[in-house]
Amino acid sequence: MSVDGWHTLLVLGGIRSGKSEFAESLVADAPMVRYVATAPAGDPDDTEWATRLAAHRARRPGSWSTEETATDPGRLTEVITAAGPNDTLLVDDLGGWVTVLLDPAHQPADDTATVAELAAAVRASEARLVLVSPEVGLSLVPTTPLGRAFTDALGATNRAVADACDAVALVVAGQTAWLKPPVASLSTVPAAHAPADATAGAHPAGATTAAATGGAGAATDAAVGGVRPATTGGTPPEPRHAAGGRGIDDVALPEVLTPAATPPPADTPAGPAGAGDWAAPTMALPMIATGLVIQPGMELPMPDDYTGPQAVDRLATLDVPGAGLGVLEQVVGFAAATQGSANPRPWASVRVLLLHGDHEGGASAGAVAGESARRARQARAGRGALARLAAENGASLQVVEAPASAPFEDGPALTGEQVEAALRYGWRLAEQAADAGVQLLVLAACGAGAEAAAAAVLAATAGAEPPAVLGRVVNDQGEIDDNAWMVRCAAVRDALHRTRRSPREAKDILAELGGGDIATATGVLLGATARRVPVLLDGPVGTAAGMVSRDLAGQARHWCLLPDHGGRPGVRLAADVLGLTPLLDLRLDLGEGATALAALPLLRSALTLAASLPVHPSLGGADSEAPAGPADEPDFTEPEPAGPGPTTVGYDQPVSPGRRAD
Predict the structure, then answer these.
(1) In whole angstroms, what is the distance from residue 237 CA to residue 219 CA?
(2) Distance of alpha carbon 465 from alpha carbon 75, whole angstroms
(3) Which of 359, 356, 558, 505 is nearest to 444 (CA)?
């Protein structure tokens, strides 16, 4: 049995469903793959079929070997039987194999016996084997005897092979449902999205969950892009977690806090736990086991390439007195691309994710013990800069406990299992927000040593010098602590020296240097990208996560917007590498996430103007000076002139001769 809990898998799907891409993603981690092509060459004059075959060949990595079995149906059984335990085979597809099997050139033949031999070979195979087959039994009955013979033979083949395989997946419109899950996955895949009291005892031991039986919500959103159900055999070590000894996958997502209408004064005493400025959770978490495996090269959605420029061009036609929105045109273009509309709307539902995760060792030199935990408690109580700004913007807030990170100068900050769990946890947070109708995520963070960890990630991914990207350390008295800064620089230097020969893959960087908060933030970015939810970045943790996410899914950075660099050198460098142009230069230092919230009203104002202003009358728009009818009430009433004097418009501004009064 392979480490994924299965070693033989049948992937079913319709035409252009994505079944082949999904099957290829399942074996992408194998050092060598033997691709077994079953399709006959076809008519030499059929250029369309030849183009299809060429596209399949071009998609295969150069390290894969290819074997053609189209001339002999029995050859497929021989190849599977001869494969050893260290081999990986991808058979694409059984439809072509059945076509050859029914070819008159191979008749008379015992088709039933040949199918049985294939199923027996699959059942006895020692290799890691993935077979692809079209599902044609859901369509209309063919009108020709040959067509009916093909569908019958293929249906019988699919049934026999499915019975012989450890697992069966059905791909429909790029979405994957597991019809026959691997045995190991039933006990190891946690119920993501399930509350703590629902995951424990909700199902008897060994019972099959909704996801395991292919129930609603079991399929992943991006199966074709390489996100596949986790079927890891065995029980991984439990990650360290601030909330207790359980792994991240077993912990319910934190409650979603909704802002009060009016924030209380600073001296208002705190009420009992769970009461006060923030209400109870806004939604119940559904019991859906995603079981994602997040891996490099995922194909996630991209924003619309056309609506962004269209929205920016449209701004030049609006009835605006001045020169326009200036740099805020970027906001309009970004919102248009992520919303898929040339007339984007202001974000109505916003959620702030505050990631709290400390880094031990020299990375946190100069930090006050317990200060980050106090900030997290303060946010939960609806107090502090972040919570007040969230309330001002009508945004919900979620305080997320990330795994604590070990001293990275001495060893890895996290284990590999912890990185996987943190990535999935962040993905789940983004999914929960999308399911709740959130239109914009704001990524915030508070954690001792987070900036040093981000500097280490930047040094590893962008080749930066740690002192150049590590900001000054300010103590609790507001004074610059150069000694603590030097300790942090030394810790980053030692960590980079320790890992100088380590791989620089995304998950390796998160494990060795990034830690729990950056790993969770990376998962949030990937999950938000998969669900088409834009993200406001603000600070070193978010931008470091953006750097890491490039190797996992390059599309993620296109869903991110950076309102301000905050005067942080590391953020400046990351923004430059990611191609994110900061919109503002406010140099606020209110904590990561607070600057984005401070800028959010301005961003919303730009979108409001872009969405509501009419086209200028000179370009065919409605005349703004025409009297408003009953169905066209003005947004406000212009003030009456104070007395005799020059004609006024708006706030008593004189109209110069020849000047438009609009």
Answers:
(1) 26
(2) 58
(3) 356
Instruction: Output the pLDDT for position 623.
Output: 56
Half-sphere exposure in the Cβ direction for 619 (13 Å, CA): 10
Q: Shortest CA distance to 414 belongs to which of 232, 239, 237?
A: 239
Strands 228-229 and 128-134: unpaired
Overall residue count recorded for the chain in this entry? 662
| DSSP H or E segment with residue 540 | helix 540-552
Percent over 70 (pLDDT), the chain: 73
Element housing 151 (H / E): helix 145-164
Q: Are 422 and 523 in contact (CB under 8 A)?
A: yes
Angstrom CA distances, 275 to 197, 257, 416, stand at 21, 11, 38
pLDDT score of 308: 87
Positive or negative, the Cα torsion across 503, 506, 512, 514? positive
C-alpha to C-alpha distances, 427 to 261, 274, 430, 490, 539, nearest whole angstrom: 30, 26, 5, 33, 20
- Mind giving me the DSSP string for 86-137? T-EEEEE-HHHHHHHHT-GGG-S--HHHHHHHHHHHHHH--SEEEEEEE--T
- C-alpha distance from residue 521 to each of 56, 241, 333, 335, 607 (Å): 35, 15, 25, 21, 27
For residues 618 and 343, which has the higher predicted lDDT (pLDDT)?
Answer: 343
Question: In sequence order, which residues have a C-beta less than 8 Å from that of residue 105 and are 6 or more positions away?
Answer: none
Q: What is the pLDDT of residues 189-209, one digit of tens each?
A: 333 333 333 333 333 333 333
The verdict on whether omega for the bond into residue 108 sits within 30 degrees of 0, i.e. cis, is yes
536-554: b (≥16 Cβ within 10 Å) or e = bbbbbbbbbbbbbbbbbbb
d(CA 551, CA 296): 6
Q: Which amino acid makes up residue 476? A: D
Cis peptide leading into residue 93 (ω within 30°): yes
pLDDT confidence of residue 518: 94
Interatomic CA distance for residues 512 and 501, integer angstroms: 12
Give the percent of the chain with pLDDT over 90.
32
The answer to whether residues 172 and 17 touch, using CB atoms and an 8 Å cutoff, is yes
Q: From CA 557, how far away is CA 544, in angstroms rounded?
A: 11
To the query of whether residue 625 is one of the catalytic residues in this protein, the response is no
Residue appearing with tokens 């942080």:
568
Smallest CA-to-CA distance from 442 within 450, 453, 430, 454 is with: 430
CB 178 within 8 A of CB 228: no
pLDDT at position 620 is 67
Residue 539 is encoded by which pair of tokens? Answer: 């600070």
pLDDT of residue 13: 92
Strand order from edge to edge, sheet including 8-13: 65-68, 34-37, 88-92, 128-134, 8-13, 167-172, 175-180
Cα-based angle 13, 18, 19 (whole degrees, multiple of 5): 45
Strands 88-92 and 34-37: parallel
Give me the mean pLDDT over the 303-328 stretch: 85
Decide which of 601 and 653 is more confident.
Answer: 601
Nearest to 228 by CA among 216, 238, 243, 218: 218
Q: What band does 658 get if pLDDT is binned at 50, 70 and 90?
A: very low
> Which of 255, 409, 417, 592 does the annotation list as catalytic?
592
pTM across the whole model: 0.57
